[in-house]
Design goal:
globular, alpha/beta, Rossmann fold
């Protein structure tokens, strides 16, 4: 039944376990060295589980998608949201059969273990760390300037933070924040080749959730995660994996009233919502997801950007989405009606069509 929502048959991914080893973003920021040097920078590592979906069928839409290099068909890297894994992107993948797609589990979620800091044990799972992980994935998978990066929800913040780092103005801001803040706009576009042909943000996080109408719900969620810090390990696990938390998520986030879709979403949450490695890395990921928005990086996104919010998004407001669009120099927006933050479950075919149209415009 779910395949009627994608307009295409289900695709079967091929799991690849990819070894990642890259410089700590903090070490790189402090020393200016790159993750390709061998001069003592702190290194982070994990074995990332990546699902590879080869392109299945040529289609009229595929022939309309230009390629920057002769014989090259654009590939997609999809980054899931908080407390998700690759399963959450499955319907979007199904709805784009003509594209070769890679979907990793982020560190600490699904089949990817948390990041390790050399012999010193677990690393900090910050937004900068997740953004650096995306770069390491792209390099390992040999994705380049012809390809497209896609993020959903927290994934939209991660990929925006990653893409912004390609702009020299981002590095200027790190080294001299006061001088950067004095500029009304960031520096001129980079002369370096683009890392990506384009960036697509599904259900982008545009609002500080601790303000305005979003505050009451955000405060309750914050208390839930803070409480896990005060509990013994076993009790924290029980709290964070509680079926009640899944039920609250379902009630507050599901917009569709189609019974089959509701049942599918509930089942996905039952199967995968608790697929995190441990409370410690989950809490770090929560801080990263709840204390940042795409707006922090909007003006530094010097590439074409597609915004695909749901009209009833529960984590962003319409005003916030409009403001985000105005902040991004090369933004295009397609609002999906009849859905909210879970548009990847409720409107996968519509989201895929928006992405397909966007890719067709890239030159």
């Amino acid at each position: 039944m779910s395949r009627t929502w994608t307009e295409h048959p289900a695709r079967t991914g091929i799991r690849r376990d990819v070894s990642l080893d890259f410089a700590s973003p903090k070490a790189e920021m402090d020393t200016g060295i790159s993750d390709k040097t061998d001069d003592g920078a702190e290194r982070l590592s994990t074995s990332a589980a990546v699902w590879h979906y080869p392109a299945q069928v040529p289609s009229p839409a595929a022939t309309a998608v230009p390629a920057a290099s002769p014989g090259h068909v654009r590939r997609l890297l999809l980054i899931h949201g908080f407390r998700g894994d690759h399963h959450g992107m499955a319907l979007i993948v199904d709805a784009l059969p003509e594209f070769e797609v890679f979907v990793p589990d982020l560190p600490g979620f699904g089949a990817t273990p948390p990041l390790q800091r050399g012999p010193d044990g677990p690393a900090e799972h910050s937004l900068a760390t997740y953004a650096a992980c995306v770069e390491a994935l792209a390099e390992t998978l040999q994705l380049g300037p012809d390809d497209v990066l896609v993020g959903h929800s927290f994934g939209s913040i991660v990929v925006a933070a990653h893409a912004a780092q390609r702009n020299p103005a981002a590095h200027a801001a790190q080294r001299n924040p006061a001088a950067h803040a004095a500029q009304s706009r960031p520096a001129a576009h980079s002369t370096k080749p683009r890392r990506w042909a384009g960036l697509a943000l599904f259900a982008p996080i545009s609002n500080d959730i601790f303000t305005g109408s979003l505050l009451p719900g955000a405060a309750a969620v914050d208390l839930y995660y803070r409480s896990s810090q005060w509990l013994p390990e076993r009790w924290a696990q029980a709290l964070l994996r509680s079926p009640l938390a899944q039920a609250v998520t379902n009630v507050s986030m599901i917009v569709t009233r189609v019974p089959e879709q509701v049942a599918y979403i509930r089942d996905q949450h039952r199967r995968h919502f608790s697929g995190f490695a441990d409370p410690h890395s989950l809490l770090q990921a929560y801080w990263a997801s709840s204390r940042h928005t795409v707006t922090e990086f909007a003006e530094l996104l010097d590439l074409p950007v597609l915004l695909v919010p749901g009209a009833q998004d529960q984590l962003s407001t319409p005003a916030g989405q409009r403001a985000l669009r105005r902040m991004i120099p090369q933004a295009h927006s397609e609002v999906l009606c009849g859905t909210g933050h879970l548009l990847h479950y409720e409107k996968p075919a519509q989201a895929a069509r928006a992405l397909r149209r966007f890719i067709a415009t890239l030159d």
